[in-house]
Amino acid sequence: MKNDLTCGLVRDLLPGYVEGLTGAETNEAVERHLSACPDCTALRAELAAPVEEPPAGTDREVDYLKGLRRRTRRRVAAAVAGTLLALVLGVGVWARFIGVEADREHMSWSMGYDEEDDTLSLTVFTNWQHWAYRGWQAERRGSELHITARRVYTLMQDDRRMKDTYPLNGVDTVYLAGEVLWQDGVSIHSGTLDAYAARTPYMGSITALSQVAEALHLDYVGLFTNELQSAAEPYRWTIVFEQERLPESLPGLDERMERKAVAILALVENLGEVAWRCTTADGEVVEQVVDVEQADWLLQQYAADYARAEGEDLDLPGVKECGSRLSRFQQLCDVTGALEVW
User: Which tens digit of pLDDT belongs to each residue from 110-164?
Assistant: First the structure.
């Protein structure tokens, strides 16, 4: 009989043939093909081979491995959770008991000097609700007293204030959190520190002069450009206001600028004159100049006015000497109001 099945058809039929699922006619056709085709015969033998049973205990080993993986995952999860908990606790301990070195940015304070006992009483508050200061230390360094602390986290309202009294005994400068708080019996304000930090020995650097102008809030007086005369002494810094000003506004401008000119001459060591210029609505160019001699005279007038208003006499030296000592520069700012924004 003709062998009418191809290898492809036989291979499709072999699984059913081996399982006894094909009919008699199909079986005869398959067997005729197998009798002449060794490849398909080999495939039938492979399909008919008995399936090996898994070794005894294999299921238990698989279960053991699955359990081991589950336990390992639990241990890793527990380790991660423990690490996170330790980290959280560590941060909490650090924030509550260690903290960071305190600075003046978040502080408010009040103080008083007892000249008879030569002591300084100081009360410090924090401006943040949940910060406090701890670990206060006072270290004497020559004629300086440095008061430091650490800033920590707190939930206690009463924990946000420090009050103490410090004997001075020859101390002339007191630092709080790295910045001068008191010098020569004078309280030093933060704005004065910023202005004093802008001091420069030379007037030739426009960058340095811009820092002086910023510290004295000249931009609040009006927009301006700068002209520098540094070819010969007296060296002059001319501030040229850009906007037009009515004639009746000039006295107010001159008064403000005179006060600021005194502070400028104190902060720029080799500067001899401060001038300012503006153009009125009528097109008139108006310029005023204050030199060192005039500034010294103005400073004494301001000090006399301050004494009458505040009942406190201030014996101030010349402008240039006031620029050489922070406490004197603070007094200069007190009597001139040079740091006012206006």
Answer: 999 998 999 999 999 887 777 788 889 999 999 999 999 988 877 665 556 789 9
Instruction: Return all residues near 196 (Cβ < 8 A) that are at least 6 apart.
Output: 267, 326, 329
Q: Above pLDDT 90, what percent of the chain?
A: 49
Q: Are 40 and 10 in contact (CB under 8 A)?
A: yes
All residues at 6 or more sequence positions from 151 whose CB lies less than 8 Å from its CB, including other chains? 99, 100, 101, 102, 103, 106, 126, 131, 132, 133
Residue in the structure block whose two tokens are 């336990």: 71
Closest CA to 150 of 107, 89, 193, 182: 107
Integer Cα distance of 172 and 34 in angstroms: 116
First-to-final CA distance of the chain:
121
Domain ranges in the chain are 7-48, 101-187, 193-336
